[in-house]
Amino acid sequence: MKADMDRKLRDFLGARTARTFADVLGLETVGELLRHYPRRYLKKGELTPFDELEVGDQATVNGRVKKVTVRSLDTKAEIPLTDVQKWARRKTLTKVVVTDGRRDLELAFFNQPWLATKLTPGTAALFWGEVTMFRDIMQLKSPGTEILDDEDLSEAEIERRARPFRPLYPATAKLPTATIERSVKIVLDSLDETLDDPVPELVLRREKLLGLREALQKVHLPETEKDIRDAQQRFRFEEALVMQTILAQRRAVTDALNAVPRPRTAGGMLDEFDQRLPFTLTEGQAEVCEEIFADLARPHPMHRLLQGEVGSGKTVVALRAMLSVVDAGGQAVLLAPTEVLASQHHKTLTKMLGDLAEEGMLGGAERATRVGLLTGSLGAAARRTAMLDAASGAAGIVVGTHALLEDKVQFADLGLVVVDEQHRFGVEQRAALSQKSGENTPHVLVMTATPIPRTVAMTVFGDLAVSTLTELPAGRSPIQSSVVPAKEKPDWLQRAWQRVREEVGKGHQVYVVCPRIGDDVKNAADEEGEFVAGDEEKSSKARPPISVLQVAEALAEVLHDLRVEILHGRLPAEEKDAVMSRFAAGEIDVLVATTVIEVGVDVPNASTMVIMDADRFGISQLHQLRGRVGRGRVPGLCLLVTDLWPGSKSYGRLDAVASTTDGFELSRIDLETRREGDVLGVAQSGRRSSLKLLSVLRDEEVILAARQVANSIVSVDPELAGYPTLRSFVRSALESETTEYLEKT
Ligand code: ADP
Ligand code: MG
């Protein structure tokens, strides 16, 4: 039977194996299996360097056996290797030490004593399983095993093992890499010679890429390193092409949208505001403002991302853009992620504008407007006034939470939407906006303090324009950060609390941040999205992350003479507000909190932040968090407490955070340590993504080339009528989860 891509696997592999593929990896068709590419390749005779292993990894290693012991689990007595067969039905632990030539790795097998007779010293074998830590020794527990120099082999097996490269697949205990390898071989052997290729023939030739059939052969059964490189290159291009085609199609749609041009006018509120500004704009701020003014003057909607560190002065930029739109007769909205932040923005803007925000009031400036606030917790009367002001146009600027979009809020003439602290602003949200502004789409400016590298922006946002503030306004206090290895150096932790006491003694305040609330609601922190899932796997799995309640209890003793209080997302709203107000008023010395404080808190008197179990947070998140201290004249201090031991990769991430305050550098490191799907914001649900080999961080050239090809295809054939295979790839990519990020931009 000939295999084509849509054929079911069970036609080739037998019902049981096919079933396992479907259950374990979600692969049902020939095409799906063939695009389950090897994660890496083992060159014949090469051992895996063990120092590249990380706790939590699903790893396949090639090692040589050094030592084997079998013990009874009941008596703990060692069993002579000549006796192990007799122990087949009893409880045993077989420990095997394997080496890569430099380091050792321990394997633990339960109730498989006969393995001791096979894994004799000197034997080379593949082992696969999860890397765990047991009493500070790196271990694979009950790994899958395949002895490489076994003699009792079928011919097919001998042939397979003679190949120069062994593909190692993303595998599980139920579906080991060897089984995947065998199945792929079967399917490949019956595969048609000509296959429909999503990459057009002409493009293949021009970009010097392998055709689909050849690439599949080479990616799974390479003969040389060049085979691997060529095949991967081809699939990377294919992935980039599909993605860029989607973006090109989307661009074509947005390019057709209309917006009211809001050219900058002289002699308005903006000029008045500029004259009163108590500081000079940084060069970056001035430049970015000019870019924005130019966008606003066009008849198509601006869609621009403004990125800049916490404290880089994004608010002034946004306010100038808003004033410019108000001067041109439109209204502007500022959306914040939380109510607290919305009220804070409202306060800041009102203060910065002074009498420019007092339209119709005694003492208001000649040309003035109103700044409205619309949040869920507003009283009915205040809400009605704010809605009226928005609808009548009396409020030139309206501040609110994102929920404002879903509300029945109407605007007289909405010209600009500024979205704070977010980089995603979805298609639906934009659609909601259009409904508020007739057939014209408002201009959109999205602000974020978590910078993203250029290639990611290009991929994730398509043609979203990006502006960046790279410098901080002068006069900011630097923040100093250190890692505190609490396990290795327990006295350092004591000193950290001592330091907290000293800061309070100087009249400053302190945050202590924990990854979890700890009030026994299951997975509470996950629900609040309070720490990066997946990262916790890399830290000691032995215990759950430390909680606010635990730490508060401990500090009640250690810092018994200080005013210690807690804050987290599940406190009632009034209580949260009350705690925050008291902290802001200096009535609390130490605030033990979850990441609720990440956004929306500005207490210049807070000088110090202690982050517990810091390894459980993402790099960018840590950077964001510490932006909460050192906001006033007081220099900031951030202590990253961890149980990790220096030397591990995860500890290295904390070191990176401690050693630089460059948000871009940290964002790059952060993204590099994540899986590609996460870079694009895909939930870690384990579902398949259409990006397998392409890295939006490393493959800039491929992405640029594919983008050009996609643009030229879409510009002449937007529906892809002449490219049926590409079209069907685009369609299935849109159905897969990866492209959820596209929906959100
Ligand atoms: P961001 O929103 O980017 O985190 P903000 O807009 O809140 O930063 O600005 C941080 C602080 O710096 C504010 O108090 C703001 O008034 C001040 N600021 C902004 N731009 C300048 C500047 N050019 N010179 C001096 N101070 C500035
Ligand atoms: Mg801000």
TrEMBL record:
Pfam families with a match to the protein in the record: DEAD, Helicase_C, RecG_dom3_C, RecG_wedge
MF (Gene Ontology): ATP binding; DNA binding; DNA helicase activity; hydrolase activity
Domain Helicase ATP-binding: 295-469
Gene3D superfamilies: Nucleic acid-binding proteins (2.40.50.140), P-loop containing nucleotide triphosphate hydrolases (3.40.50.300)
GO biological process terms, semicolon-separated: DNA repair
Domain of life: Bacteria
This protein's UniProt keywords: ATP-binding, DNA damage, DNA repair, DNA-binding, Helicase, Hydrolase, Nucleotide-binding
InterPro entries: DEAD/DEAH_box_helicase_dom (IPR011545), Helicase_ATP-bd (IPR014001), Helicase_C-like (IPR001650), NA-bd_OB-fold (IPR012340), P-loop_NTPase (IPR027417), RecG/Mfd (IPR047112), RecG_dom3_C (IPR045562), RecG_wedge (IPR033454)
Residue ranges of every copy of the Helicase C-terminal domain listed in the record: 526-677
CDD domains the UniProt entry points to: DEXHc_RecG, RecG_wedge_OBF
NCBIfam families: PRK10917.2-1
Name of the molecule in the record: Probable DNA 3'-5' helicase RecG
Organism: Kribbella turkmenica
Native organism taxonomy: Bacteria, Bacillati, Actinomycetota, Actinomycetes, Propionibacteriales
